[in-house]
Amino acid sequence: MDYKKDVIYQIYPKSFQSTTGKPTGDLRGVIKHIPYLKKLGIKMVWFNPFFTSPQKDNGYDIADFRAIDPIYGTMDDYMAMAKALRDNGIELMLDMVFNHTSTEHIWFQKALAGDKKYQDYYILRPGKPDGSLPTNWESKFGGPAWNKFGDTDLYYLCLYDKTQADLDWRNPDVRAELSDIVNFWMTKGVTGFRFDVINVIGKDEILVDAPPETESKKLYTDKPIVHTYLKELNQHSFGQDPEIVTVGEMSSTTIENCIEYTNPDNHELTMVFNFHHLKVDYENGQKWTKIPFDFSALKNILFDWQVDITAGNGWNALFWNCHDQPRALNRFGSPDKYRVESAKMLAAALHLLRGTPYIYMGEEIGMVDPDYSSLSQYDDIETLNAYKELTVSGLKETEVMDIIRTKSRDNARIPMPWDDSEFGSFSTVTPWLTNPKTKDINVKKELESGSIFKFYQQLIQLRHDLDVISDGDITPYSRDHDQVFAYIRRLGTDRLLVLNNFYEKETEIEIPKEFVDDSRILLANYDISKNDIKTSYTLKAYETLALYVSE
């Protein structure tokens, strides 16, 4: 895979396709739809974890890194899927959850049984002399980040759910085990690895309380030793094959660190995910709130990361959607009136940037949030915890549900709708999450009469065809415009101007003379001709326009 020219597709296996009569997806379901993936034009699939897991956090609580969870199939099913993908020119990226394991993992169970070797695999600390927890750190999912370690006087660190025990990367035996896991999957045809929350692995030997008014995450995120750990992991596993592509999920990270993570000279990772641009609809930085997105902040974040990462010889992973985020169409577009136009605008705005684009399943057909009406329709542990905390805070039930409906991770996890039947042909029984919009938005309908899928195909092909997209520099254009996200890509004598109106309201923008006189329309989501391109141009609702000049 050429990570600069190819596009990666994310599959959440639990919601892609069921072939077993169960309410959840499986690996054989992926095989069924490989022709669809090939038709789209992607070259690699990132799979969320399908390893053995008690599923407390939908597979991110892993009990065996080398085994397939029975709900998804068997190792034979995996090998058949891997071969079928490769036969169709599609490579595999697996999700490595290396910050923590499930408390049902054999390592943790041996630790609980008193095995000192495996107790050293985890971060265990005694309580304070006054009987309080080892530190005042808070879990990412709400509540304290410590849980009692069996019947001992120790506590184990759990930055996420209490069933997800943090590993101690300071232990070389842990690092060796994790390198072996990567090598194991490399022998099974894996050529891509996504490392979950990998920049929180660098905890200090001595853990201290977060000072007042300071978030505890600042004490363990992006620590310098993370770079040391990644260099070692690279050297002992995936770095032995220069064709392997890696991406690190970086929590609350910085541009400076991500340059270091991804500069090829450092031999750490190929690219990084950061989430700063997806927090622009958080009030005072708090996820469980509901406010309109801050367009100026969105633009500035995207531009800062584009320009600075390029200057530092790093590489961005580009995405609007993933399994942990509400659908971008609901956040930044128009899920009802201008669903098609805004879906295309968001796609072009992202895919024509510098970096590797990721498509989250269903994005290419314009999927939107399900708009659940009842808490009983949700499954996500973070959502259920947030409901409790928001309710205790004194908000009204209607206010709480409005926030949940807007921010829940389950928005992205509803099953893929393959047609307009009751369950969208995802399953023959009621799915684990319902998708109430299969009648209007589904693959069959999109392929027969829609235009979003074709637009994604075009974007994927353009990245292959034009080096200015894959390799060109980027310069923000009209940065202060209050509705338009615009930029210019340059490589040699090739130039590309990309204009994106993020609002329903029409707006004027000036087009540089070179793009009026000498350009051709590379891409548009409205039916326009070259004669329409004037120095002063009116962008329609959610319009995207890409003008290309080549000398």
UniProtKB/TrEMBL annotation:
Domain Glycosyl hydrolase family 13 catalytic: 10-413
Pfam families: Alpha-amylase, SusG_C
Organism superkingdom: Bacteria
EC number: 3.2.1.93
Group of enzyme by EC: hydrolase
CDD domains named among the record's database cross-references: AmyAc_SI_OligoGlu_DGase
GO CC terms in record: cytoplasm
SUPFAM superfamilies: (Trans)glycosidases, Glycosyl hydrolase domain
InterPro entries registered for this protein in UniProt: GH, GH13_cat_dom, Glyco_hydro_b, O16G_dom_2, SusG-like_C, Trehalose_TreC
GO molecular-function term, one example from the UniProt record: alpha-amylase activity
Keyword line: Glycosidase, Hydrolase
Annotated GO biological process: trehalose catabolic process
Record's keyword annotation contains Lipoprotein: no
The family this protein is said to belong to: Belongs to the glycosyl hydrolase 13 family.
Name under which the protein is recorded: Alpha,alpha-phosphotrehalase
Organism of origin: Bavariicoccus seileri
